[in-house]
Write a structure and sequence with these properties.
Elements: H1 10-25, H2 37-57, H3 60-67, H4 77-81, H5 90-101, H6 129-138, E1 140-141, E2 157-158, H7 162-188, H8 194-207, H9 218-237, H10 243-253, H11 260-271, H12 277-293, H13 297-311, H14 316-327, H15 330-333, H16 338-350, H17 358-367, H18 369-374, H19 381-391, H20 395-405, H21 415-424, H22 430-437, H23 450-459, H24 463-480, H25 487-499, H26 506-531, H27 541-549
Antiparallel strand pairs: 1-2
Helix pairs in contact: 1-2, 1-3, 2-3, 2-5, 3-5, 6-7, 7-8, 7-9, 8-9, 8-10, 9-11, 10-11, 11-12, 11-13, 12-13, 13-14, 16-19, 19-21, 21-22, 21-23, 22-24, 23-25, 25-26
Length: 550
């Protein structure tokens, strides 16, 4: 309860809970923590947040007892050197700062030195950057598979090179600069005030650089990560927040380098302030727009749920509107579950209840959008097309064209199969299906060839139009596959034409059989070129006899 940002009557309840927790924590220690790295960091974060709450609302002794429940780690050299991606540096930074604040001291350089460095008692007074740099450069370590001396004993090597040492010192200096306003307020006592938030946001905002991503340095990532962490803590614990300062923090977190999750977290803290409800509502509307523009559709559902929870303090009605907006994309939220998608498509293929209602057919197609976008070559387009022909109908054609306009996938992947399956159901007619088919490229697949589609079209049209359809498709294939094409392609076409006799003469069939033969020979040559000629295990008797003589 001390660590949670949503705690009513925070000051009165935290005072009593902090005292009770502090006395209990003195008798409790976590001997065996979580196994995974993420779980350990999560536990460390919760303990650090609880310790800070006790420090602000009860006493240093209670905060120190809570902090000592778990062995905390200092930031690593990786935390100080990370330039891209989400940083995890704030939790170890906060724990390191609390180890000093709970004793009534200011954070010193040795509190933030890399956790890969063992700090002895006589090294706990590091006065300036030069001393810290010297300490890092002198740190030695031996590696089991590293350099060895003449006797095979491992030689000590430097733990950090010059560049790593410089990055660690730069990172420590930046953390101390960003944390200074927060530290002053904590050590002063009396809780956090609105003026503390104003002072912190002013200082933090002046240190954020707006540069291109490839020009960013590790200190820029630290500035954002550590600053946002301390800003959230002030929003959580301060007695009041002025509207002007709330606008300032919204402007900062709306930058390109901070994630939607970071913005939603700030929104949830602002929404708990009665005087900031209108501002939080506007910010929530802006976040909703960012969520809808997220190209990773599978993340939209999670972010809509987080946004709804963050806006609950504004009222159930307003939160419900954002939740309904998330539900409108429900068909895309679980689309990354391939087994679920294919199970639904198999059912849609065999169900006998007729076409779905328009709104449900759209949701079914949207449900497949993620796979179609990320893995168009591996998606089972034949299954999708059969399911669409059975349960959706002609609107599925429009969806293919829309996906092509949105750069989701090329319509040639599944549209040929779809129009052929639809032609068997007389929607559209075979001639219109042929017109659409010749506009698509022949990608083919492992379980469908255009010869199968030709068979469907010929079986669904009148005899007078069969010859025209067959010649049009043959002309398309011969033009598109001027290099010869694969033998399976021509084999499927020959099979369809032999089934419907009299559509082409013997000369055309002979030509198709030659194309099939050339295609087989070409594929055989390609396989030999990739895999090499088959190995021969015959023994060369002459070579063996010559070897024995020598």
């Amino acid at each position: 309860m001390l660590a949670t940002p949503k705690n009513p009557n925070r000051n009165s309840h935290r005072n009593g809970i902090g005292r009770a927790t502090g006395s209990t924590a003195a008798k409790t220690a976590i001997e065996k923590g979580p196994a995974s790295y993420d779980d350990k960091r999560r536990l460390e974060r919760d303990i650090a947040n609880a310790s800070l709450a006790a420090l602000l609302h009860t006493s240093k002794q209670s905060a120190q007892r809570i902090l000592n429940v778990w062995q905390h780690e200092r930031p690593s050299s990786y935390d100080y050197g990370e330039r891209h991606g989400p940083s995890r540096a704030f939790t170890p930074v906060l724990s390191s700062c609390l180890s000093a604040w709970t004793k009534g001291r200011q954070v010193a350089l040795h509190h933030l030195l890399s956790d890969q460095l063992t700090i002895r008692q006589n090294q706990r007074v590091v006065r300036d950057r030069e001393e810290a740099l010297t300490l890092l450069k002198r740190a030695m370590v031996t590696y089991p598979n590293g350099k060895t001396d003449e006797k095979g004993s491992p030689l000590p090597q430097r733990r950090f090179d010059d560049r790593e040492s410089e990055k660690i010192c730069d990172g420590i200096q930046r953390v101390l600069e960003v944390a200074q306003p927060f530290q002053d307020a904590v050590l002063l006592g009396g809780g956090l005030k609105a003026k503390d938030f104003h002072h912190f946001v002013s200082k933090w905002g002046s240190r954020i650089r707006n540069v291109r991503w490839n020009a960013e340095e590790a200190t820029d990532v630290l500035t954002r990560t550590v600053g946002l962490g301390f800003a959230n803590l002030i929003l959580q614990h301060a007695d009041s927040i002025d509207e002007g300062d709330a606008k300032a923090i919204i402007k900062i977190v709306s930058g390109d380098r901070l994630s939607i999750e970071d913005r939603i977290r700030v929104l949830g803290l602002l929404a708990q302030r009665d005087n900031l409800h209108e501002l939080a509502g506007k910010f929530g509307l802006a976040i909703s727009g960012w969520v809808c523009k997220d190209e990773y559709v599978e993340q939209r559902g999670t972010n809509h749920q987080k946004l709804t929870r963050a806006l609950l303090p504004l009222g159930v009605t307003e939160a419900r509107e954002y939740y309904n907006e998330g539900l409108s994309q429900l068909d895309q939220m679980g689309g990354d579950d391939y087994d679920l998608v294919y199970s639904i498509l198999r059912y849609a293929d065999v169900q006998s209840g007729g076409l779905l209602a328009p709104e449900f057919s759209q949701r079914l197609m949207n449900f497949c959008q993620i796979i179609a976008y990320h893995k168009p070559r591996k998606f089972d387009w034949t299954l999708y097309s059969r399911a669409a022909a059975t349960s959706i109908g002609v609107p599925a054609i429009y969806k293919f064209l829309r996906w092509a306009d949105q750069d989701v996938s090329d319509y040639s992947y599944g549209l040929p199969e779809l129009v052929c399956f639809l032609a068997k159901r007389k929607q559209p007619c075979a001639k219109r299906a042929t017109a659409i088919l010749i506009l698509c490229e022949d990608f083919g697949s492992h379980d469908w060839e255009i010869g199968q589609g030709l068979d469907d079209l010929l079986g669904a049209t009148q005899k007078d139009d069969c010859e025209t359809i067959a010649k049009v498709i043959l002309f398309k294939l011969q033009t598109e596959h001027c290099d010869g094409g694969w033998d399976s392609l021509w084999g499927s076409v020959i099979k369809a034409l032999e089934k419907h006799e009299g559509l082409v003469d013997n000369a055309d069939l002979t030509k198709l059989r030659l194309l099939k033969k050339y295609g087989y020979e070409r594929s055989h040559e390609d396989n030999e070129r990739r895999n090499g000629p088959p190995r021969s295990y015959r023994v060369d008797d002459a070579a063996q006899q010559q070897k024995r003589r020598n």
